[in-house]
Fold:
Amino acid sequence: MMIIPAIDLRGGQCVRLEQGKLEQETIYSKDPLFIAKLFQAKGAKRLHIIDLDGAFAGVVQNLEIIEKICKEVNMPVQVGGGMRKMEMIDKVISAGASKVILGTIAITNQPLLDEALKKYGDKIIVAIDAKKGKISIGGWKDDTEVNAADLAKKMKAAGVKEILYTDISRDGMMEGPNIKGIKSMAQKGGIAVIAAGGISTIKDVEKIIEIEKYGVEGMVIGKALYTDTLKLEDAVKLAG
Structure:
């Protein structure tokens, strides 16, 4: 089970939002590279970076910082936010990202998704961000009627190997993850799932480890690491 700490970039700073809302932002560090190195020192084996500016603008905005982090840490880095053109995907991979997270285009641009999969294969992760089982896109601003589990099945059929599943209602709220939803996503989708949203305590980590057998291969942890309700080294140790 991978424990994947999160860095959300906005205006070059390390921030956290509640439920993806810009008006509910907290700045945790003005030095994202320091945070990345700190996570590495505490045992992280993969890093999760979201360019929030990119997610809202539709174009990657923090490429220079992303490249610096990728070059200076010795672990795979998965990057999302603003990946809506092949040019952006190419740039982020060239900057050193091991994996790229595609969200909006998985729904709105199947030909681009197919092109990215053909070119980069298992370097492509698809983000499935849901509210009450329905997909949200465009930096979580736009709700759709697309069923999350149905999209997971479609992504598997397209050749996607990993999905990042986030329950938006839990994200940044410190209320615990939606275990039932995560388990259901892994079972119905039949695809490797990285869980995100609401993981706040070591008990939450334990609960997700318990559903690993259904195809949950990792978890992204954000706010809890910054507010110290969960210590990264404890989560890494528990996950083995």
The domain at 2-239 is CATH 3.20.20.70 (TIM Barrel). The mean pLDDT is 91. The longest helix spans residues 110-120.
